[in-house]
Write a structure and sequence with these properties.
By secondary structure, the protein is mainly alpha-helical. The protein has a single domain (16-194), classed as Fic-like fold (Orthogonal Bundle). It has 8 helices and no strands. It has helices at 16-19, 30-49, 59-70, 95-112, 117-131, 138-152, 170-183, 188-194. The longest helix has 20 residues, at 30-49.
Length: 196
Amino acid sequence: MTIEYEAPDGATPLNPEELEQLIPLHITSMAELNAAEQMNIVQADMWAFSRNRKGLLEIKYAQALHKRMFGDVWLWAGRFRQRNVNIGDVDAYAVPTRLHQLFGDVQHWLENNTYPPDEVAVRFHREITWIHPFVNGNGRHARLMTDLILKKMGSQRFSWGGGDLVNAGKLRSDYLEALRAADDLDFQPLLDFCRF
């Protein structure tokens, strides 16, 4: 493969073995890769929002959604990462267990009205990004899963700052800063960012 891959700030870089699993061999630039992934994500978004969200808080659903989001671009789509990464503190072997715990927590919050819908959503979002279950695409997957949870609760999707969170820039920096505040259990910056 001859793509010049550069991970944006705050993203996990792909290793050579992961890069070799690119499906469309004509892709040679980050712009082409981003475009191919975005086309796949749009299709996954339409699929996810056009059906019943039964099973949303299950591991199989999270994997199926990731595969739909990236399966036309990457062979590893929908599979949990097999190596430790620089984001979060979850070892690769613990990803399924931590996801199961998170989904159980969210189900409890929903059943008991523990938090308002937006707070349930940002708490979920922070936690799934911290778990970082997949090789790549975790932020995009986490944002779509979060929007699906909001829809399940009868709420509107988040605006996510109203712009591009994939490429480096001020908006991405603001998003990462809000996530870091949530790491310290200050969810207000993320709440503000998501409804901007």
